[in-house]
Design brief:
It contains 10 helices and 17 strands. By secondary structure, it is of the alpha+beta class. The chain has 2 domains: 87 residues, Immunoglobulin-like (Sandwich); 239 residues, 3-Layer(aba) Sandwich (Beta-lactamase), CATH 3.40.710.10. The strands form 4 sheets. It has a 6-stranded mixed β-sheet, sandwiched between helices. Strand 11 and strand 12 form a beta hairpin. Helix 1 packs antiparallel against helix 9, helix 2 runs antiparallel to helix 8 and helix 3 packs across helix 8. The longest helix has 38 residues. The chain is extended. The termini are far apart.
Length: 427
């Protein structure tokens, strides 16, 4: 029986959890993605008859590429091999439950500086999943959306009884393939493209994407598009995709998007050939969607690896490449590091008493110690002595009662012994 790889499936995004079913003699596991070996560790083994289910954890980010697994026995001999195509490893934290969101003042100031660095109107919305820190500047500003809303169209399609496959998802995310998106829009509407547009708009409003709207199907070279969005809306969309990919929950899970389907969409978003406006940096991987129009740029990316994963969304009211990449580079270099800062643990209370309060310089009495009752002059407490005396009396009385009980017991034992010298002593 060949090696089975139930997790991850082909063309799925993964948090590094790999499950394989191999011959029971398997001991070691070797993994590679796209032909490059990745470090892994075995975290679980469950044997059932002649097969064993092995759980492996991978910390690296890699892909998209073919995940290949090789298992060896105790002597190092290859026992089985298996593979899954199109896998994207996003690191162990990507599907963790997000921390409570809160605005970060330092990161927000850096986002405002990045927005002011270029002349066109800019919207920025970024959040770190692991720390909950969020920074925004001009985030609610309506902007031209273009293909940046294609993931919303695909999410609506994944909620249908017959969701599109991995090939259709990748084709729809290709920069110049509007026909694939429109075919999926028609499927969302049950054969009616206008109905599909209405359902996608309803889904976006249900997600809280207040500035986002499709004005109709996608067009190629047919004049300006009326599709709109905002940086905040794009971030909200990516957060909803992550929630569905985690466990099939969140607002997309409630409309029928399953975890495996959301993970396939994330993997398809990692297949873009165009470099993202927000560069991921070394040992990190980015995935997302964006639009490059004649007078606007927009993008949302998930950056995984090298610490807590982050989401960054940008809108720029200019079709020129330089302003958009200037803002994206500043977000990557200044805003995201501030969001990734570890959240400080609450300070522990020191139970040891602090230093004695110093006497005032005029030679008067020292102030009362911290925590003393109001009106306590800091001298001996007479009620404390009363309590101590009562405690001593109680202890003395208890000792006297116990001594009397022991004497009575010895007298009873002596009387029984005089009546019957052969009787055993009671214990």
């Amino acid at each position: 029986m060949p090696l089975d790889l139930p997790t991850p499936r082909a063309f799925e995004a993964s948090d590094g959890r790999v499950v394989l079913v191999a011959p029971a003699a398997a001991r070691g596991v070797e993994l590679s993605v796209g032909g490059r070996p990745v470090a892994s560790r075995v975290t679980g083994r469950v044997t059932a008859g002649a097969r064993v289910r092995i759980t492996v954890r991978v910390a690296a980010v890699a892909g998209p590429g073919t995940l290949r697994a090789t298992v060896r026995d105790a002597r190092g001999r290859v026992r089985d091999r298996g593979s899954a195509a199109g896998v994207v490893l996003l690191g162990p934290r990507v599907f963790a439950r997000p921390a409570t969101p809160r605005a970060d003042a330092a990161a927000t100031a850096r986002a405002e500086a990045a927005r002011d660095a270029v002349a066109p109107a800019v919207g920025i919305s970024a959040v770190c999943i692991g720390t909950g820190r969020r920074a925004e500047s001009g985030a609610a500003r309506p902007a031209r959306a273009g293909r940046a809303l294609v993931p919303a169209v695909l999410a609506a399609a994944l909620a249908q009884p017959d969701p599109p496959g991995a090939d259709d998802l990748r084709a729809a995310l290709t920069e110049d393939d509007t026909e694939a998106v429109n075919r999926i829009l028609t499927g969302v509407g049950g054969g009616d493209q206008a109905e599909g547009v209405a359902r996608v708009n309803a889904l976006m409003q249900g997600l809280g994407m207040r500035a986002s709207r499709l004005d109709g199907p996608y067009r190629s070279g047919a004049g300006p598009s009326g599709k709109t969005t905002s940086a905040r809306d794009l971030r909200v969309l990516m957060e909803a995709l992550l929630a569905a990919a985690r466990d099939g929950g969140g607002p997309l899970g409630r409309v029928g998007v399953q975890a495996g389907e959301a993970r396939r969409l994330l993997a398809a978003m990692a297949s873009r050939d165009e470099a993202t406006l927000v560069p991921p940096g070394p040992r990190r991987l980015s995935l997302g969607a964006g639009a490059r129009l004649s007078d606007a740029r927009s993008e949302v990316v998930l950056i995984a690896g090298g610490g807590a994963p982050c989401i960054a969304a940008l809108t720029v009211a200019s079709g020129a490449d330089t302003p958009a990449r200037t803002v994206g580079a500043r977000v990557a270099a200044e805003v995201l590091p501030a969001l990734r800062r570890p959240v400080a643990a609450p300070h522990a209370v020191d139970p040891s008493p602090g230093p004695a309060p110093a006497a005032p310089p005029d030679g008067g009495a020292a102030p009362p110690a911290a925590g003393a009752a109001e009106g306590d002059g800091g001298g001996d407490d007479p009620w404390g002595w009363v309590g101590l005396g009562l405690g001593g009396v109680v202890l003395a009385a208890a000792g006297a009662i116990r001594a009397a009980q022991l004497r009575a017991r010895r007298r009873r034992r002596a009387r029984r012994t005089r009546r019957d010298p052969t009787a055993p002593h009671p214990r």
